[in-house]
Specification:
CATH architecture: 6 Propeller
CATH superfamily: TolB, C-terminal domain
Helix content: under 10%
Number of helices: 1
Order of helices and strands: HEEEEEEEEEEEEEEEEEEEEEEEEEEEEE
Largest sheet: 5 strands, mixed
CATH topology: Neuraminidase
Number of domains: 1
Strand order of the largest sheet: 10-11-12-13-17
Length: 380
């Protein structure tokens, strides 16, 4: 009862600030970086993906909609926002492949065929599968196609902490919904995964609640082979046995995190930066959106982080964008990051109902970039 009350109070505390005007003047970025509104007409913005013709698609949570953002005049800001799907249950996850847009909706995945040819008259969603778990607790499903052409779909634990067969894992399937198989186990709730240039999978995982302000940490995990088990619900953050489910277990029996991200930061979407518009130090940096805590006595997260990775090891973890909260009052909650073809970086903000665009302008003494000028590729 007490846990339920805390959850309700936490959600109520967030509600009054929903869709508040973005306060970009309060955001802090490294020297030379700038952030601007790409669109502030995207209620409950979550995962971002980009179509083959550059359309920016954005999923949502409670809004139940999927948006298509277009920048037809090349201004760096969306000049048209369309709703291409609505009436869905928590369509937080979207993925684009072969002209088609795949959308998660708790127990179902649907697809909009040839969507970029039909932005003004979107097709009726076509069912891919309706055989996913139906629980709404950790039931929202981030989506992504891997280098293997498979659609990756997480199955979050239907609880704060429990040991229930068929949950707490990452799966993959063919684009038609067939051939479902497990990829990684022991994941409480992953709401972000991506692949490095070496083809290996990296993902965020949200730690359990009710173990205090500082335990356990959210995790950045590195999947190097199918079937790895990352500990949940028996072991957290690689070194802490669960007080309820850890009896008789050893943390050494599970794959440890590549990086502990901090307790309750709610790490969600992540992408590697492969563009050339940012300084060379940012090439192959992993950006992570931290949605922010809901039940910590002092808030944590509410920022975008950067992670330097050398081979399979993390060498640095630092703040890239800060200021989404002022003191204990948050006006924004980053949910996903998505590099664009021009080298800029999009950031979705669920609380403000917006998508931002991060760009870079060289400052004196800064490393050079390989950014093309006037849309032209640099000479080889």
């Amino acid at each position: 009862m007490r846990a339920s009350l805390i959850i309700i109070l936490g959600l109520v505390a967030l509600a009054p600030a929903a869709y508040a005007k973005p306060e970009l003047d309060k955001l802090i970025l490294p020297p030379g970086f700038h952030i601007a509104i790409y669109s502030d007409e995207v209620p409950d913005a979550r995962e971002i993906t980009v179509g083959g013709h550059g359309t920016v698609f954005v999923g949502s949570s409670d809004a139940g909609k999927v948006y298509a953002l277009t920048d037809s005049d090349g201004s760096g800001k969306a000049n048209k926002v369309r709703v291409v799907a609505s009436g869905l249950t928590q369509p937080i996850g979207i993925a684009f492949k072969g002209g088609d847009l795949y959308i998660s909706a708790i127990s179902r995945i649907v697809v909009l065929r040839d969507i970029e040819s039909h932005l003004d008259d979107p097709p009726k969603p076509e069912l891919v599968t309706d055989k996913l778990t139906r629980d709404t607790h950790h039931g929202g499903k981030y989506l992504a196609f891997g280098p293997d052409g498979k659609l990756y779909v997480p199955i979050g634990a239907p609880c704060n902490v429990c040991d229930q067969k068929g949950y707490a894992k990452l799966t993959r399937m063919n684009a038609d919904g067939s051939g479902v198989e497990d990829v990684a186990l022991g994941l409480r709730n992953t709401v972000g995964f991506t692949w490095n240039q070496d083809g290996t999978l990296w993902l965020t995982d949200n730690g359990r609640d009710m173990m205090g302000d500082d335990l356990p940490s959210d995790e950045l995990n590195h999947v190097t082979k199918p079937g790895q088990h990352f500990g949940f619900p028996y072991c957290h953050q690689g070194d802490t046995l669960d007080p309820d489910f850890g009896k008789g277990k050893k943390c050494a029996d599970y794959t440890p995190p590549a990086l502990n991200l901090g307790a309750h930061v709610a790490a969600l979407g992540l992408r590697f930066y492969e563009g050339k518009a940012f300084p060379s130090d940012y090439r192959q940096v992993l950006f992570i959106a931290e949605h922010g805590s809901w039940n910590r006595s002092t808030k944590s997260g509410y920022r975008v982080m950067s992670v330097d990775i050398q081979g399979d090891r993390v060498s640095d973890y630092k703040v890239f964008i800060d200021g989404f909260k002022q003191g204990e009052q948050a006006w924004g909650r980053p949910a996903d990051v998505q590099p664009l073809a021009d080298g800029s970086l999009l950031v979705s903000d669920e609380l403000a109902g917006a998508v931002y665009r991060v760009t870079y302008t060289k400052v004196p003494g800064a490393p050079k970039t390989d950014a093309p000028k006037n849309g032209k590729k640099p000479a080889k």
